[in-house]
Amino acid sequence: MMVAELQVAAAGPEWLPVAAEVAQRLGLECLPEPVDRPAKVASPALLVLVSGEGVSLQATGKKAPGPVRVDWVHGRSGHRRRQGGAELLVKAIGVGRASRPLRILDATAGLGEDALVLAGFDCELMLFERSPVIAELLADGMARAAQEPALSDRLARMQLERGDATRWLADHPEAVDVVYLDPMFPEKRNSAAVRKEMQLARSVVGDDGDAAVLLETGLTAARHRVVVKRPRRADPLPGPEPATSVEGRSSRFDVYSRRALP
After folding, report:
1. Residue-wise over 95-110: b if at least 16 C-beta within 10 A, else e?
2. Does 202 carry a binding-site annotation?
3. The domain 76-257: what is its CATH number?
4. What is the pLDDT of residues 96-115, one digit of tens each?
5. Is 174 flagged in the annotation as binding?
6. Would you kindly state where each structural domain of the chain is located, as residue ranges?
7. 3-class DSSP state for residue 236?
């Protein structure tokens, strides 16, 4: 589901051919002239902007925040990768308890930050992203990251699938060790607490209203467990009760166990 009006633009004339290719893949209009100052653009409210730094989601108008792109080298994900981090995610997935690297399906990949962390533990990742725009950002970021020596091994263990994971999960019983779900959280009243990346992503994809269906099909496809990220105070997804939860300050990971990890 695409919520906000979007167009594709190039940050400079040299990027117009690439922007036209991106627009064709996404089925969107490509602006004929480059956009070097998004703050001066009144409409549309969002651009898929192509530049030398990659493909990004860029708000327009006065006081618009900077671009959102998948940057696993210098961005927030790069810092998270270098510092380790994500202990709660790793614990919920069960990486430390498994006797071999796990095969994980990330059914709501988003900008891929969690998958990048798990790939650092030698896990094999399938990433599904059904929003064409977010998938375009993710594919662009993965292609750039694969050229970095420090990341090439991780990227070799990551496979992106553009589309909805629901059908694949239903058609492949017990095909992966773990299914991971991070559905779009219900919108917080205090929008200042929501990261820029999440605000722009929500404006493109909206909420994941079928998260319970993903859980149901995920329990079919997972040999060992399904892990669902939720706001810490939110109810579990409709369906079976989680076997356990791993809680942090603002979020938690509900674990639905099928059998012991390998």
Report:
1. beebeebbbbbbbbbb
2. no
3. 3.40.50.150
4. 999 999 999 999 999 999 99
5. no
6. 6-59, 76-257
7. coil
